[in-house]
């Protein structure tokens, strides 16, 4: 196979798995069985010194990490991921912009919200630990929401992030939005996530990873005609 993807269910590797599947690019999938949010430890030893997934192995043995970096590479080398029947990138600079924006402003915020203890040291604060953690989580949630609102405003002249066609950026947004969960003042993000979750090629992968998110199942939405 041209690619081998190492990932675990519910993680950022969903984006890469879904993009490859939608672009109809063959790849080997190496699942890592672990408790959600638990360190992978020895499972990624020798693959990624940072200890995280996804990890995409290329044909020459190169190992790529970081969702935005993997998407950027694939967008350069795989025509079906860039100009295919299912995925389309009509503005590559904007594709890079939104991929990095999602990583820096949304993904990072979700990590700050979920792993608050990583963002301050026990020896560097004064006061009640619980109050400080709550303050960090609140600030992270507000920042994430502001980032989604920016997307709503900046991309209001077309259906998806880049154009009126689905791109890998939209898959990335949908995963992050599923982690965040839907909000009534973010209709475009909700709509894009619905399109990703109900996509014929992506839907089964979504069901495996996020069956408990957004209060719907992809096949139920298709039956109700919301695709």
Report on the architecture of this protein.
- The protein has helices at 13-22, 67-77, 79-82, 92-114, 129-154, 168-180, 187-197, 203-210, 218-223; strands spanning 4-7, 28-31, 55-57, 63-65.
- With 227 residues, the protein is an alpha+beta fold.
- It has a four-stranded mixed sheet, with helices on one face.
Question: What is the secondary structure topology, with strand pairs?
Answer:
Blueprint: E1 4-7, H1 13-22, E2 28-31, E3 55-57, E4 63-65, H2 67-77, H3 79-82, H4 92-114, H5 129-154, H6 168-180, H7 187-197, H8 203-210, H9 218-223
Helix pairs in contact: 1-6, 2-4, 4-5, 4-6, 6-7
Following the backbone from N to C, one meets helices and strands in this order, namely EHEEEHHHHHHHH
Oligomeric state of the chains present here: single chain
Low-confidence stretches: 216-227
How many strand units?
4
Descriptive key words:
single chain; 227 residues; alpha+beta; 4-stranded mixed beta sheet; disordered C terminus
Write a short abstract of this structure.
With 227 residues, this protein is α+β, with helices and mostly antiparallel strands.
